[in-house]
Design brief:
Elements (H helix, E strand, L loop, with lengths): L7 E4 L5 H12 L3 E6 L2 H10 L7 E5 L5 H15 L4 E4 L5 E2 L7 H26 L5 E6 L12 H20 L5 E8 L11 E2 L3 H15 L5 H11 L3 H13 L4 E4 L1 H12 L8 H14 L11
Parallel strand pairs: 1-2, 1-4, 2-3, 4-6, 5-8, 6-7, 7-9
Length: about 300
């Protein structure tokens, strides 16, 4: 893709985090945006933030787990925007629990949002994207689509599947006007931990604390961990910029953050025992972030 100017971009999960800043950056680059979000108040905040840009904004209250709503979305966007050039399947959630203790309801909640919504959206939008001179489908996986940790079986299952699905599409559309991108963020300062569903048993809480302590160097309750996670990760505006740079450079796999690149390297060096290398690579990075948290891009970080 040569430019975002005058393109129309659809973004799910646009009420906060990476999705919100994708919308803002794309607007800055002259793209028209269709912002989609399940939280009406958060969606309104994003729309208000886009008000200073001379672009067209359409607002879509959307539950990505609702298959019929996702199937209707392309028509809704085209009726307001005229066409569609980019689709960012960005919405995501998680549940902290062992597989044995996780309810089927929680399992389906994550799978429907993190995986099935990506598939449904891709199926719905691809026919429209193919009609454009240049277009891009951008699906968000995770670094947890490459490595695994305990108590995240459902998240890993969804994100590994998003990776496989998206990389398969990239093969199928190779040489066409369609760009296919799979994004693997590392520790981004979003509220995914604050919004996570957590098994509240004492054993589960202690195990979750150990898990987060292993990853980000903190051993506390969910609220404190969520605050730490949000404040000490890469600012979502910078993550959004990395993603957009990857689209312009036609990178089919986009790793977001130094930690994502290091974890990917660990997995390549020792595919079955990569966690043994995490302290070597990740501890200096964590200490650096604790000392000097990463800031947002100038003038848009809010």
């Amino acid at each position: 893709m040569q430019t975002f100017s005058n393109k129309v971009a659809v973004i799910t999960g646009a009420g906060s985090g990476i999705g919100r800043y994708l919308a803002i950056l794309l607007a800055r680059y002259g793209a028209n945006v269709a912002v989609c979000e399940i939280n009406e108040a958060a969606l309104a905040e994003t729309v208000a933030m886009l008000g200073d840009f001379p672009i067209k904004v359409s607002s879509h209250l959307l539950d990505v787990a609702d298959k019929a709503a996702v199937e209707a979305l392309p028509g809704d966007v085209i009726s307001q925007q005229g066409h569609i050039d980019l689709v960012f399947n960005n919405a995501g959630v998680t549940v902290d629990s062992t597989f044995e203790d996780m309810s089927e309801t929680d399992w389906d909640w994550v799978m429907n949002i993190n995986l099935q919504a990506v598939i449904n959206s891709s199926r719905a939008f691809l026919p429209h994207l193919k009609q454009r001179p240049e277009a891009a489908l951008i699906n968000t996986s995770s670094i947890f689509g490459m490595i695994v940790v305990e108590r995240q079986s459902v998240y890993h299952t969804a994100k590994f599947a998003v990776r496989g699905f998206t990389e398969s599409l990239a093969k199928e559309f190779k040489g066409s006007s369609m760009q296919i991108h799979c994004v693997h963020p590392g520790h981004i300062g979003t509220n995914i931990l604050g919004n996570a569903r957590i098994n509240k048993s004492e054993e589960s809480a202690n195990a979750f604390q150990r898990l987060v302590g292993k990853l980000v160097g903190l051993n506390d309750d969910q609220e404190a961990m969520a605050e730490f996670f949000q404040k000490n990760g890469m600012h979502p505006s910078r993550a959004a910029q990395v993603m957009l740079n990857g689209v312009l450079k036609k990178r089919s796999r986009i790793l977001v953050g130094t930690d994502a690149k290091l974890m990917d390297l660990c997995q390549r060096l020792t595919p079955m025992h990569y966690e043994t290398l995490f302290p070597l690579f990740m501890l200096p990075l964590t200490l650096l972030r604790n000392k000097k948290p990463l800031k947002g891009l100038p003038s848009i970080s809010g």
